[in-house]
Design a protein that fits this description.
Number of domains: 1
CATH architecture: Alpha-Beta Barrel
CATH superfamily: Phosphatidylinositol (PI) phosphodiesterase
Order of helices and strands: EHEEHHEHEHEHEHEHEH
Length: 250
């Protein structure tokens, strides 16, 4: 059974991990660090490169590259991107190599589709083709309901979650429209987690995730409210603290 559909609360490593002690986010170094600490699920971001699908959050290289490279990710090949020096080490990986690692190491993957890409339809098509030949445990997610709807048609067997945020004007109407006909779950921003909303979504048979949670007290409250998974920058440290009764922040 998919980890995204079990009764146990799943702690998902946000971009592998983030913070001073972590390698560069969304790299195999970060994902491997999370797995070594016990993580069984990671979250990552996908977007188009010039000749394939790459794991990278931003549209440009500026924030994470050592020299604040202003180039667009979509204009570079996978080979070129893999050689970009990153501030905290590691290399920019392709989706294919990342899923090969995840599947070989029994790691479930929340694949977030970015919206600021040259073609959302092309991104969906490319990722679906890659995933179609694999047997791993995946959850597709996006802030773009159009992308999620396309995924419902093109990859109906893969679980799908709609991402929403507090500053998103369409969030409330989208919560009303969230149904199992096109969704498996909803990933709420941590400041949207009204217990009544969680209960409503769960009552419709949807899974509920929350991003990005790093505080122990907050995580415990969300678990009590019935969430299914928690996305965290320090997923395993948070899980251990929640389980042990430690009330310190992480």
């Amino acid at each position: 059974m998919s980890r995204f559909a079990t009764s146990d609360v799943l702690f998902i490593a946000h971009r592998g991990g983030r913070g001073d002690a972590w390698p560069t986010e969304n790299t195999l170094l970060a994902f491997k660090r999370a797995r070594e600490q016990g993580a069984t699920a990671i979250e990552l971001d996908v977007r188009d490169a010039a000749d394939g699908i790459v794991i990278f959050h931003d549209a440009t290289l500026a924030r994470l590259s050592s020299d604040h490279d202003p180039r667009l990710v979509s204009e570079l090949t996978l080979s070129e991107l893999s050689r970009v020096p990153l501030m905290k080490g590691g290399a920019i990986p392709s989706l294919i190599e990342t899923l090969e690692w995840a599947d070989a190491n029994d790691v479930s993957v929340n694949i977030e589709f970015k919206r600021d890409v040259p073609s959302r339809a092309a991104l969906v098509s490319s990722v679906v083709k890659i995933v179609a030949s694999r047997t791993g445990d995946y959850l597709f997610s996006s802030f773009d309901p159009g992308i999620v709807a396309m995924l419902a048609v093109s990859a109906p067997k893969v679980k799908r979650a709609l991402l929403t945020s507090r500053d998103q004007r369409s969030a409330a109407p989208l919560h009303v429209l969230s149904r199992k006909a096109w969704l498996s779950g909803v990933n709420l921003e941590r400041n949207q987690t009204d217990p009544a909303l969680i209960a409503t979504l769960r009552g419709r048979g949807l899974g509920v995730g929350v991003w990005t949670v790093n505080e122990v007290v907050e995580a415990r409250s969300l678990i009590a409210a019935g969430v299914n998974w928690i996305i965290s920058d320090e997923a395993m440290a948070l899980k251990v603290a929640v389980s042990s009764g430690n009330s310190q922040s992480h």
